[in-house]
Every structure is written in structure tokens, then in C-alpha cells.
Amino acid sequence: MGADHYYQVDAMGDLGNVKVQIDSGRDATEDGPVFQNRYPISLVYKTLPTFLQNKLRDQGKSEAIVADLTVLVATDAFFFRLWSYPTAYMQRFGGGDQFGPLLIGADMINRESTEADPVGVGIFGWFAAVAVGVGMLAILVWNIVIARRDRQVQRRRKEREADELRFPQ
Prior knowledge:
Elements: E1 7-21, E2 34-45, H1 50-58, E3 73-86, H2 88-91, E4 97-110, H3 121-164
Parallel strand pairs: 2-4
Antiparallel strand pairs: 1-2, 3-4
Keywords: Membrane, Transmembrane, Transmembrane helix
């Protein structure tokens, strides 16, 4: 790459609805590792994009050799080679190295939303709160109306019973 260092970004690539099953090389009855919808990839960059540098700085990891970040990105890159490396996931299936594409990245685009509430969850919360409030008010009004009707029916019944139980003089 023409530099004395590089940045390696290990990521999960989107496969869409594709399922990748790796042959374990053992019994045909045993299933090997499965990757569904996502597959591990490695991206190599000469310099980190500004938004990643800012995230590292905000977490106090700007000088770290290894740092964990979770960021939704899109990248422009080209395939360099297929490489293999040991992983804990592959160890669960009897060992062997994980293999994946090593890509040389040209550009990385931040796909995270800049809005505090990107999908409008807050507005649904307000609608739910209003609906619950209106429901509680409706229940209160309903109880008041029913209690009033019950009192009227009870009063009429007592009057009727009183009239029926009057003894002749």
C-alpha cells in the first residue's frame, strides 16, 4: 500500500438473504459452520475516515491498537485476496481456519443517522401516551355514567319495594 502502517477494519458484510455453509471436511452427517445474511470481511485502509477517528477519540481510544466500534457503513473497496485466520466460531466445529475476503478500501461512508430519533420512535410514544390518557379518561367517564344509572335503578327498586310492602291500615 506504500505506507509503513495500515488500518484493518473487521466487519460483517451484508449477504442479503444468502446462506453460506462451510463444509467441515468431517462426516457428511455433521453440519459445518453456517453464515446467514452476514459474512465476516476484512477491510484495509491507508487512513481512517474522519468519522471513525472522531468515534475513537470520543471513546478515548484514539491511540489504541485494537478498538471495538459498531458503526453502520458503506464502503468502496476492491478484492485483494482470500485469507484465513483462526476464530472461536470455527473452533466450535472442530477447528480449522475461518476464511474471508480481504478488501482494500478506497472510501468509507458513514451510514448512521445524524438524527437523534431516526425512525420517529418518539412520535409513536406520544401517540401511545395520548391513547392511554384518552382510554383512561373514557373509562372514568364510563364508570361515572354507569354508577349514576346504577343509583337510579337502585332508587327506583327501593321505591317499588316500599310501595309493594305497604301494609293496609
